[in-house]
Amino acid sequence: MEMQRGHALEKYRNYLRILVELQLRPHLRGKIDLSGIVQQTLFEAHQAQPKLEAIEDDLLPWLRRVLLNNLADEIRKTQRVKRGGGREISLACALEQSSLTLEAFAIADQESPSHYLMKQEQILNLTAALARLPEAQREALILQHWHNWPLAQIAEHMGRTRAAVAGLIKRAIQSLRNDFRE
Questions:
Q1: What is the pLDDT of residues 144-174, one digit of tens each?
Q2: CB 52 within 8 A of CB 45
Q3: What is the number of structural domains in the chain?
Q4: What is the mean pLDDT of the chain?
Q5: Which residue, 95, 107, 119, 148, has most beta carbons within 10 Å?
Q6: How far apart are CA 138 and CA 39, in angstroms?
């Protein structure tokens, strides 16, 4: 029974990983263990599994809250400076916004509440497709589409030419399109 619970939560790994990548500012990427945050979140979900069965429809929002707390803890550790509650509130808003952006990206025109489960599955499929992208493509795509960085800034950050970054983004988008055509 315990192994089945762990496997059931495993399908959320890519979703959580992509949300962390979307939230983490590029200058913190080398300082924070993304996999560790995701692993901690899945561990906490595994520990709370009996309670989660009662809120199965609200599992994604619950996972986002746990992920937010774990990410905020890690950011606090790296900054070693006390901050007010405003930073945590803005991080919560940003995490929720990224999740909503993923949902909008996954399903453009579905508004019916009856599509909720299908929407969750599409979000998980999108985050799995993003996770399969080569790291450079995923990073360039995230910086442009989620952080709204211009090509020149991405190129400087990644140590590449603007044309190379444009190519990375183009290939990333094409890969995502191919994943969803199948």
A1: 988 889 999 999 999 999 999 999 999 999 9
A2: yes
A3: 2
A4: 78
A5: 95
A6: 20
Predicted local confidence at residue 105, as pLDDT: 43
The tokens describing 175, both together, are 């890969």
Q: How far apart are CA 118 and CA 110, in angstroms?
A: 10
- Do 59 and 90 lie in one domain? The reply is yes
* Residue entry with tokens 């996972």: 63
Mean pLDDT of 113-123: 68
Range of the domain at 25: 2-132
Q: Are residues 23 and 65 in the same domain?
A: yes
